[in-house]
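Summary for the steering committee. One of the milestones for this cycle was to obtain a three-dimensional model of the protein with 2U9 bound, which we needed before selecting residues for the alanine scan. The sequence and ligand used are listed below.
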Amino acid sequence: MSDLQHKLEELLNEVNSASITDSAQLEEFRIRFLGSKNCLKPLFSELKTVPNEDKKMVGQKINELKNTAQSVFDQFQDQLSNETQNEEKIDFSRPGEPSEIGSRHPISVIRKEIISIFERIGYGVSEGPEVEDDWHNFSALNFPEEHPARDMQDTFFVKTDDEEMALRTHTSSVQVRVMENSKPPIRTISPGRVFRNEAISARAHCFFHQVEGLFIDKDVSFADLKQTILFFAQEMFGKKAKIRLRPSYFPFTEPSAEVDVSCTICNQEGCNVCKYTGWLEILGCGMVDPSVLEAANIDPKEYSGFAFGMGIERIAQLKYRVNDLRLYSENDVRFLKQFKSTL
Ligand code: 2U9
């Protein structure tokens, strides 16, 4: 047997006994037997040295070796790709990973509850910017130039290129925009975040949430205001809730009042939540000052209106009896997950 035939035998053995278990070995095999510089190429060159009568037979053998190498390669390639597919196969019958369902923030729960109560009596919802100009936050609401609420202590001022702006201190600014952009009758509530420059403690925060309401039409009276607030209090705190109004002062309403609701915790028998008074303060309100209507181009001789404002945190404190204001903005999951709501 010639040298060349001997080499062919050896290579055929090698191909037939190849054991390939990973893709690196498969690649090694491909380079050796099928790549552009494979080990069969020199054999074809050596064919020149084979005697003429044997050339055909040896040439066929080299070709057969090449074909065998190709089919061994194909076989191992199939086997490996089946194995990896099996590894990645997804078992759809496995139970899913348990995922915890989140809960609404208590401020959102109360905000939605307040909105839903007023929507039932014909109010729409209006929203506006948190960064406001002096007109919408102060001047249009009848704040005199030298009013202390404009001071640095209460208001965060924001410098822009052409104007000094403020972080709104109440959502009344939104309602000024509603008055400017629509004609009475107006029935709207404005929920939103407001900002006051105060040191953070259990009882004060530099931001909190409000819902303010505005009703403007012909012949709106203080009796309408009282009845609306009573409806709200009873929807929010239960049908047995009573309200009382105490005279107060706000620049944008005249007359103005603060509203207390009967203590639902002790049924007015006296407890430490109502400080043994039987009453809890829930909101402020009043008849819209004629100069506020005028500032928004609404004729106070033709129209009158009432307005009210409440802090959502305050209502949440009464409903959930959580008094530390900081808890409402810290987003501690252990606190938040205690609130469940259908709204
Ligand atoms: C317009 C005119 C008048 C909104 C009103 C109050 C009374 C009030 C406070 C309650 C607690 C703010 O969150 S709080 O600190 N608000 O007492 N707000 S009347 O009056 C308006 C609103 C809009 C155009």
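Key point for the committee: DSSP finds twelve helices and ten strands in the chain.
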